[in-house]
Design a protein that fits this description.
This protein is mainly β. Helix content is 11%, strand content 43%. The protein has 2 helices and 16 strands. The relative contact order is 0.17.
Length: 249
């Protein structure tokens, strides 16, 4: 008898039962769907050490700040995903921090209605650690007309990056805003036009971290990264029309 195979089967079965029994802290009927769709049904745990912060009520549903902090697993994080379960376009970002970037990220998003928001952090052991929060909202943030497109000369500012770097002991915080309409295709007559890829790079071109963005991110997106040390960093971005932008900090 293959005892190792038998033990592995028992452990897998036990893990599946434990996950099935683990209550969703938000009681969302959509959790199982997104567990399969975005996490491929892989092992997970609802984890209070994943700090997901958002306002309890979205004063402006087009600009809702969220912050994910997985510092409890610093050095072990492979990926960080976020999504808003009841948005028409739920996915927010897919972030691979790298060794020189701390597993923390802040961004502003759109919400269409009151919704659970999830942060899923994949650690080296293959377990997804899930942080959850619910945001109440009057609604309409995803289908409201763009404010950026109503501003004269917005095309000339496309891709302009404004930002600042702050020293925090042995770390530095990079806070920036990118001029871009981030059109999600849900407003009549305006196709999708959004930033979809970004990389933080060192001065010699080494990739420090990668992030994939989705149209749930607000127009003129703001991003906040935390880096180790004070080395010079460059931000490279590309939108879904192939436009590329770059800025140094």
């Amino acid at each position: 008898m293959d005892w190792r195979g038998l033990i592995l089967s028992v452990l897998l079965a036990w893990g599946g039962e434990a996950q099935a029994a683990a209550p969703d802290p938000l009681g969302s009927a959509m959790w199982s769907y997104y567990h399969q769709r975005l996490l491929d049904g892989e092992p997970f745990v609802f984890d209070e050490q994943i700090r997901l912060e958002a306002p309890p009520f979205a004063e402006d549903a087009r600009q809702v700040p969220i912050q994910i902090d997985a510092s409890a697993y610093d050095g072990k994080v492979r990926r960080m995903l976020a999504w808003a379960e009841l948005n028409p376009i739920p996915r927010i970002f897919d972030f691979a921090p790298g060794e020189q970037v701390l597993p923390r990220l802040a961004v502003r998003i759109r919400v269409e209605q009151a919704t659970p928001i999830r942060a899923a952090v994949l650690t080296d052991d293959g377990i997804w650690h899930i942080g959850s929060v619910r945001v109440e909202a009057a609604g309409g943030g995803c289908t409201a007309p763009s404010v950026v497109r109503a501003e004269a000369g917005w095309e000339e500012r496309l891709g302009q990056v404004l930002g600042k770097r702050f020293q925090r002991g042995g770390e530095s915080r990079l806070r920036l805003q990118v001029s871009h309409p981030m059109d999600n295709g849900l407003v009549g007559g305006i196709p999708e036009f959004f930033l979809e890829k970004a990389e933080l790079r060192s001065q010699d071109g080494q990739v420090l971290g990668r992030i994939e963005l989705f149209p749930a991110v607000s127009e003129n997106p703001t991003l906040t990264f935390d880096l180790r040390g004070d080395q010079q960093a460059e931000l490279w971005l590309r939108d879904n029309n192939g436009n590329e932008f770059q800025a140094s900090f």
